[in-house]
Structures are given as C-alpha cells and as structure tokens.
Amino acid sequence: MEIYLPIIILFSLFLLNIPIAFSLIASSLVYFLFINTSIPVTLVMQRFISSASSFPLLAIPFFIMVGSVMNYSGISRSLLSLADSLIGHKTGGLAHVNVALSTLMGGISGSANADAAMQSKILAPEMTKRGYDLPFTAAITAASSSISPVIPPGINLIIYALLANVSVHEMFIAGYVPAFMMALSLMVTIAIIARRRKYAPSRSEPAPGKERLHYLGKAIPALLIPFGIILGMRFGLFTPTEAGAIAVLLCAIIGFFVYRELKVIHLPAIFKETIQGTSSVMFIIIGAMIFGYYMTLEQIPQNVASALIQVTDNKLVLLMLINLLLLIVGMFIEGGAAMIILTPLLLPAVLNLGVNPVHFGIIVIVNIMIGGVTPPFGSMMFTVCSILKVKLMDFVREVAPLLLALFIVLMILTYSESLVMFLPNLL
Fold first, then answer.
1. What would the mean pLDDT of 122-126 be, rounded to a whole number?
2. Across the chain, what does the average pLDDT equal?
3. In this protein, which residues make up the domain named TRAP C4-dicarboxylate transport system permease DctM subunit (predicted)?
4. Has residue 110 got a pLDDT over 60?
5. Whole-prediction pTM
6. Confidence tier at 362 by pLDDT (50, 70, 90)
7. pLDDT exceeding 90 applies to what percent of the chain?
C-alpha cells in the first residue's frame, strides 16, 4: 500500500489548500526520497528540468499572451457591440450577450478565468445597472466562461493533445460543435429564467440591419483570428506552437492599426500578465510530469484501467463512471490540474474499449469546465464571486439551473461520438 502514499498525500495537500504545483512536487518527492530510493535524486531533478524542454509547450505562453493582448486592444469591446446588436433585443438581452461574448471570445482568449475576469469587469456592472440580480449576473458570467476553453485555441485543448499524443489540430476542430451546444443550452435556460423574472432586453427593438453590418464589419478582424489559425494548421503553414505566435502578432496588428487602442505603454502590463500566467501553468505541468513519472514506474495507470474494466466492460457504463469521477474531482481540484493528473490514468481504459481519444478529450475538457463553476472549489466561481463580491450560497442557488443545462450537454456529447467527431471527420 505504500506505493499509493503519494496519492493520499497529494489529495490531503489539495484539501489543505496548498497550491497545486507544490502539492504535486511534494508528494512526488516523498516517493523518490523515501519509498523508491533506487533512483538517484539527481536523475529526478534532471527530469524536472527536462519536462519543460518541450517545443509544443511553447504554445501555452503564446496563447496566454493572446488573451492579455486582446484585453488592451479593443477586441473585446468590438465583440461586445456585435453580440449586443445581434441578440440584445431578446428578453434577458444582456444575459444572452454575456454568453455570446464568451463564445465569440473563446477562439481568442482560450482561458475561462481570463474570460470570467474580463466580463466581471466589463459586462457585469452594466447588467446590474439594468436590473439583473447580482448573484444571477455572477452565475451567468461564470457559467458562460466555461465555453471559452472548449473553442480553439483553448489551452486545455493543447495540454490534452500533448498528454494523449493526439493531433492538436483535431482537438481544435472538435471543439466547435460542443462549445456552440453549451452556448445554446445556456441561452435557452436564460430565456426561461429571464421571462419568469421579467428581465428587460438591453434594446427595445432589434438593431437595424445597417447597424448590425457596421458592428460585424468592425468585428471581422477579431473573428478571423481563430479561423486563420485553424486554416493555417490545416494547410500545414505553421505548427500549433507557431500558431500561438501568429495569433499574438495578429492581435497586436489589429490592436495597433485597426482598433488603434493598443499602445506601447501597455506592453509592460501584457508581458507581466503573460509571465505570471505562464509560470503558474508551467509549474503545474512540470509537477504533473514528475508525478506522472512516479505513476508510470509503479504502473498505476495500468492498474486503474484494469480495475475500471473489471467493474464493467461496457463502454457506455464506463464513460458514465468516468464522468461522475471527473465531476467530483472537478469540485475539489482546479480543472487543468485535474486533467493533467487523471488523463494518463483514464486514457488506457477507454482506449481498450475503443473510445476515440479526441472524443474522450472533449468529454474530459467539458467535464472539468463544469467543475470550474461548481462548488466548493470551482476556479471560475471564485474569480467571479471575488470580483463581484457575491456570497457563495447566493451564487450556488442561481447557478444550479445553468449547471443542469451544461450537464445535459455533457451527457449528449458523451454518448454521441459522431456528433463530436463530425467536423474532424469532415475535414
């Protein structure tokens, strides 16, 4: 049983609210220092350093930087105006705009927490001014931000592709249908709640076609960024890592020369945010790599896969069990860390039963995004509640129907591989 001690220590440290990276590294070192002493510590440290020496991992800082550049470039305001002109006249119009903006921004920011923070500062105050309850505003902002990482170039899509050794391009393409289904489910739920509470639309009547075309024309440069990235990778013009650099360049050009809101004085803040975001993500990934080294040595992934298959060899039942596991883990552990830890454990089991790894990746990512909105430790929940000063119990009450809508979408995606794989197979 001592081989499972690092896992027990890991979850104990999580529950004590120790930072994820430190928890991973500390529990791994317990194994290499006290349980398996046959491996020199110098070799472990070499692995620690070499874990970061990966060309595909360079995509992460670039895409984090994209989100930061976008916040200073006027792209977000342009997309907000477009979303408002399209659906602002609906009952609960600003709530719908909140979801639409997350969907439009998903292909640019790729980060749920960045999206949640930005909308909490830009859109949430306007919603409360128009009569929306603050807890309801917070719930929508957090729930809609779960869409961003599912649309390329979400960072989680890249990390999963590296963990599962699948095509980043395929993961990107597979994200579109699930993301739009999540957006649609939230909008339907919002429409029902808004009608019951009589929330007014942000516009008294639909925007005229001329105004919509104006905002669409203004937003086209921003909307073309994700499609340019996908097409560039599809035709082999650049790798996913190079796509990140291209995305930064495109956002900067649009910010400087099209919207003219990005200034040289913004660069220090952009670099600071990029370094902070990259260091925290990379530290977690490196810690997870060391933890994964311990699990590989002890063949824990194979043991877990065998145990799951012994419980059931029915693919549908196994996927349901994995969904429940991911949802529960997502309530206690930050989504990215949960994916990094659990993907190597669960992937062998689902591959043995013939599950497509790209389809499984979408299931995992949607799952952990729902976990990010779910108490008690959802990261987007904490981001929104802390910025908007909303009590946790009020947030939980308002977010419940939105979580139910997202869970229904998750079930559809889990049992409809053809739906998830439609675009990747088409291309």
1. 75
2. 81
3. 7-417
4. no
5. 0.73
6. very high
7. 11
What pLDDT does 239 receive? 72
Q: Give CA 71 to chain center in angstroms.
A: 18
Percent of the chain, pLDDT > 70?
A: 90
Q: Is the peptide bond before 153 cis (omega within 30 degrees of 0)?
A: yes
User: Contact 183/100 with Cβ under 8 angstroms?
Assistant: yes
d(CA 254, CA 270): 15
Query: Are 75 and 222 within 8 A, CB to CB?
Result: yes
Q: What's the pLDDT score for residue 305?
A: 64
Minimal CA–CA distance to 227: which of 250, 253, 259, 261? Answer: 250
Per-residue pLDDT tens digits for 70-103: 778 877 777 777 877 877 777 777 788 888 878 8
Cβ–Cβ under 8 Å, residues 60 and 158:
yes
Nearest C-alpha neighbor of 177 from the set 6, 427, 419: 419
**Please, which residues have CB within 8 angstroms of residue 179's CB and are 6 or more apart in sequence?**
103, 106, 147, 150, 151
Type of residue numbered 299: Q
